[in-house]
Amino acid sequence: MDFWEKECPVCSKVFHEGDDVVVCPKCGAPYHRECYKEKGKCIFVDLHQSKQSWQEVYDKTPPKTEKEEEMTACPTCGEKNPKNALICQKCGNFLSGSHVRFPFDENEKGEGFSPENLPEGWMFAGNPFALFIDPMGGVAKDEDFDGVSGSELARYVKTNTPYYMPVFKKIKDTRKGRFNFAAFFFFGGWYLYRKQYWKGAILSLFYFALVLVSYFVTNHYAADLWKEAYDAVTASGVSYPQWMEIFSWALAHRSSTELALMYLPYLLNLLQFVVQLFCGFLANRSYFRHSLKTIRKLKQVKNSENLMKEISENGGVNTPLAWSMMVCYLIILFSFSLF
Question: What is the pTM (predicted TM-score) of this model?
Answer without folding.
Answer: 0.56
